[in-house]
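ABC transmembrane type-1 domain-containing protein
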Amino acid sequence: RERGGGGGGGGGQGYARRAIGMNRPELPWAGLGLVGALMNGALFPVLATLLVEMLAAYFLCIAAPVDPAALGFPPVPWIHANATLTQTFYDSPTACAAPYRGVDCVWTAPGRWLAGGDACDGAPAVCVDFYPPGGSVKLYQDPELCYSSMRATVRDYSLGFLGLAIGAFIANFAQLYSFGRMGEFLTMRLRDLTFGAILRQDIGFFDLQENSVGALTTKLAKDASLVEGAVGTTLGLLIQNLTLMVISLVIAFIRGWMLTLIC
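Tokens:
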């Protein structure tokens, strides 16, 4: 019988190293498969992020009554003239981008404005801080301006979904083809070695019941496939799942570390 050593590693680890060593000619394909597995692992976190941002984009523009007094000051005359304005909410005052901020448009007395007051009067949108502070809101004189911005944002995220689909196709092809190719060559080499070992046995070897023709052909067909399944495509899935876990945790801690610790 042919016996295989553990290569100094002992047990299954030694056999795994030997199996990987037999795939040495396909190492360039392992690099391509690794890249594909990393991309595949990142797909679902990126998909979840795009989906959340896409849903949030539909709520960027909210038509609601605006009370100038609730803002802490009357920043722009047209706020008084419009009972309903389109609003876009932001987490911090510095995140609100508009031609002018409300603090630049504050009046000191009726009819008297600080610098920039006239420009703010005609501005299509201004940013004002919440009162009490804690965020900003962009007020549009024409709601259609906000809706146009919202449509552009949704369009960008839609293109992101398209790009993600193309990336998913490339990543899956690279991972499955590369590790599949490695597995097929490993299976071929293992079966070649197994068949050669069978042919080198004594006549008495074949007289044993456990070494019947059916048993040997079954080993020849199945054992090599089992080894390939342990070190071939399984390796790609392991890398993919580890990448998925790491990226998901990073995104979760960035977006809300306290909730992540609880969950």
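The chain has seven helices and seven strands.
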